[in-house]
Write a structure and sequence with these properties.
By secondary structure, the chain is α/β, with parallel strands linked by helices. It has a single domain, classed as Rossmann fold, CATH 3.40.50. Helices cover 35% and strands 19% of the residues. The chain contains 9 helices and 8 strands. Strands 1-2-4-3-5-6-7-8 form an 8-stranded mixed beta sheet, sandwiched between helices. α1 crosses α2. The radius of gyration is 18 Å and the shape is globular. The N terminus and C terminus are likely disordered.
Length: 304
């Protein structure tokens, strides 16, 4: 695969959020309760936090959004975030805006563990929050899409012997949506690649690239997955999503690839509206209208 010269992390984050801000031109619906800075874990003496957005007329379904661009995870004012998530909020979804330990301090292996914990936390507290712990969706764009697909393809059922109740929970999700995600990290971390210099989260042991490449972990029990990608994306070529979708379909997993013709790394205008509509419709179809997935073993044990 060929890659373009990396862009700065600031520009990368602006592109990352373009689809959401373009798709949410109308003011956010009133009646949304915002709980900022919910602590879902600690590391290195710091808190891992998420913001929770709960519409008054909720549908009982939770969606975790990975706040990540180039594996940098930055705080966003809740008012701006509400506009980002309005397409989900107006349909009754509760949104968890997840911030992970950010690059350049933390590398992808550590970042993946953070987002795993975020799912475990929401599953543990789902009933108290008012969402079905077995109907959780996950989504994100670019690096956030990569993290979403890692959650979708490499779940575990938790550690029943862990002293921390969060770690006893499964991190399995029931549906995923990923916008222009890198799905194979081998080309990004190989010798001579310019990417690690621009995105320090990629400076982990390159021999572990497959371990953190969703494409290498596709299996029959993966959740329904929607991929959205522009065919003119020079930063993360659409081949990433094409091969991922083919692999999922080859294992019998429900997968669709929405190709945005002429789209680059981020969408605006009609392209943003089209992709946003598909994003929400996917979660409505697979989280609201489909039968609930079976509860993971760890959750069954908890309920006894």
């Amino acid at each position: 695969m060929k890659y373009a010269t990396p862009v700065s992390s600031t520009v990368f984050l602006i592109i990352l959020l373009a689809i959401a801000t373009s798709a949410a031109a109308a003011p956010a619906e009133r009646g949304v309760t915002v709980t900022p800075d919910v602590v879902y874990g600690h590391k290195h003496g710091m808190a891992l936090t998420m913001d929770v957005f709960q519409p008054k007329e909720g549908n009982g379904i939770g969606v975790l959004f990975m706040i990540s661009g180039g594996w940098y995870s930055r705080w966003v004012p809740t008012g701006q975030a509400m506009k980002m998530f309005e397409p989900l909020l107006v349909k009754g979804f509760t949104v968890f805006a997840v911030r992970h330990g950010s690059s350049p301090k933390f590398l992808i292996p550590e970042i993946v563990e953070d987002v795993r914990r975020s799912v475990r936390f929401v599953r543990l507290h789902g009933k108290d929050i008012g969402v079905d712990p077995n109907r959780l969706g996950v989504c994100g764009a670019s690096a956030g899409g990569h993290l979403s697909l890692m959650l979708a393809t490499t779940p575990d059922e938790g550690d029943p012997k862990a002293s921390d109740p969060v770690l006893r929970m499964s991190d399995r999700v029931a549906a995923a949506v990923a916008f222009y995600p890198p799905t194979d990290l081998q080309p990004l971390v190989k010798a001579g690649s310019p990417y690690p210099a621009q995105y320090p989260a990629l400076t982990f042991d390159p021999n572990r690239a497959d371990e953190f490449s969703p494409l290498r972990h596709v299996s029959e029990d993966d959740p329904p997955t929607l991929l959205i990608h522009g065919d003119k994306d020079r930063l993360v070529p659409i081949l990433h999503s094409e091969t991922m979708c083919e692999a999922l379909k080859g294992r019998g997993v429900a997968c669709e690839l929405l190709t945005i013709e002429g789209g680059g790394h981020g969408f605006r205008g009609d392209d943003a509206k089209r992709s946003s509509d598909a994003w929400v419709a996917w979660f409505e179809k697979h989280l609201v209208k489909s039968p609930a997935p079976a509860a993971p073993a760890a959750d069954k044990a908890k309920d006894k």
